[in-house]
Each structure stands twice: as C-alpha cells, then as structure tokens.
Amino acid sequence: MNNKVQLIGRLGQDPEVRHLSNGSKVANFSVATSDFYKNKQGERVEDTQWHNVVVWDDKLIENVVEKFMSKGSQVGLTGKLKTRSYETNSGEKKYVTEVVLERFSGEILLLGGREPSQRDTDIQNFEERKAPVSTEEDSDDLPF
To answer: Distance between the two ends of the chain, CA-based, in angstroms?
Structure first.
C-alpha cells in the first residue's frame, strides 16, 4: 500500500455512526495528536493537531467503534490519507483531508482506555458511597 498513515491519539468526541440507504454504515470522529517542543525561551510547548477520521468498514464499526470507542479513548489508527473537495452554498470550493479506514485497509487498535469524564467520576463516587465497608476480619470464611 503506497498511501498509508498511522496515528496514535485521543478521540475528540464520541463517534458519529450513520446508517446509509444501502444498509451499510459510516463512522466519523476526530483524533487529536500532540507533539512537544521547546521554544526559544526554553519553555515546553504542546502542538496539538486534529485529524478527521472516516470508517467505511461495517464490521470494524460494529465490533470496535460502536462498542468500545468514546470521547477521550486513546487509539492507534492505520488508514489512507484522502483529500476531497466540495462547494459551499455560496459557491466557494473547500478541501477536506481525512484519514479513511476501509475494509481490508484500515485498522483500529484500542490503547489505554480513555480519560475519565466527569460522569465517570460521579459514578465512581456514588459506588464508593454505597459500597458497604466491613471492619470485621472474617478469614475463616475464605473459600480456599
């Protein structure tokens, strides 16, 4: 494959999955990648780039994107870099470059989960409050 791009980054939002009239699916999401460098003053600077991703593989969408990916998920992607153009309502021509994952030429590797959201923190705090805390040590009741 001559056109191949690999990225490791985090999802900027939950994937948007659409059902097409022919019965297949397409998923869209953005991935942020970051590089770090030192400026002239010696300060560490983070440079974040956003990449639009389009998945055209129904099995990949059903088995990975819909089940495991959400905002903040860290992923590794392999796909093709494609640029397309379109005209706005005012007649202006726009260009969009996307990482496209198609059947047999795209991969998604799930890495390290996702950054906890406020909802996750709220759920964890609730679970900790409702979990009974035992101060007794019942070592005689161990099943082994």
So the answer is: 55
